[in-house]
């Protein structure tokens, strides 16, 4: 059942047509006409989770557990290695329950090697023991815990009782000797959830906001006899989540800006709004499935080139300069941010 579902998620993601808006279009950053350095001097490198990476983008959790998923993971891992960026594997529950599924995840570390950053992934209903198994399975540098009540609730076989999540997160943060990243899956984090996670000891939050992959639609495509389309607009847009998180940002809280990141401009804006790093799932998966490794690699190298162009046009020689950029907000983003009571 779980294996079949994994396959359907990929297929349905590719069939999905609804386009959400992460509201990056409502962020304005000024053009700067007098950059005072050369293109070749631009440094997109940074340190994340104690390791050097070449660019502030990670490949976010997608899959694992089937032969098809293993092929995808092999390609994603090769991309992560070649572009020197982090990668998270998809939910490992399937491999915690069935040893046959382990290789489809373990292959990611095998390809990336010991130098790269690889993140394990479980859902918030699993405890410390399962967290350790997931981490050991791939020699992970950190563990992602995903919060996906929206997705579970429209899945016929999905979970209905989320009471153990806080305890699980606290136990894992205290008992695991590695950083813990708590993430959404495309519905975004509210100010209260960000604060609660911080209070539970979580120091890296992946906002995974609305505007990209839409799990209401992806799941609904599995049950065509039911119509959940009226829910497809539900969620906290990514740019709004970033503004909320920025407002309460503590110095020791690392933010991953994700959900609807489709290109260089989204990345630049997410970093300017306060993300320490961006993450992408759906858009990269699209390129990979439609054109294989080469097509996805070309997409990433174009994205990185465009990012450098934008860095030059905002006078940012290094990633830290992007965090210091000023910006304006307008339209829906401004209304939603300023209208909050
Ligand atoms: C996902 N995502 C996901 N997240 C997670 O924590 N564990 C998982 O197993 C999966 N599985 C998965 C499958 C597929 C096909 C997609 C497209 C996505 C969610 C993903 O990590 C991310 O949070 C969201 O997709 C939002 O980012 P994008 O896709 O808008 O860049």
Could you describe the 3D structure shown?
Strands 4-11-10-9-8-7-6-5 form an 8-stranded parallel β-sheet. A two-stranded antiparallel ribbon has the order 1-12. The longest helix is centred in the C-terminal third of the chain and has 31 residues, at 282-312. The chain has 341 residues and is α/β, with parallel strands linked by helices. It has a single domain, classed as TIM Barrel (Alpha-Beta Barrel). 45% of the residues are buried. α2 runs parallel beside α4 (103-112) and α2 runs parallel beside α12 (282-312). The model has no long low-confidence stretch (mean pLDDT 97). It starts with a helix and ends with a helix. The chain has helices at residues 2-15, 67-83, 93-97, 103-112, 128-138, 149-154, 165-175, 191-199, 215-220, 238-247, 264-273, 282-312, 319-323, 331-338; strands at 27-28, 46-48, 51-53, 57-59, 87-88, 118-123, 142-146, 180-183, 204-206, 254-258, 277-280, 328-329. It is built from 14 helices and 12 strands. Ligand FNR is lined by residues 9-10, 13, 60-63, 90-91, 121, 144, 146, 183, 185-186, 208, 212-213, 258-261, 280-283, 285. It catalyses: isopentenyl diphosphate = dimethylallyl diphosphate. Residues 167-323 form the FMN-dependent dehydrogenase domain. Mg(2+) binds at residue 152.
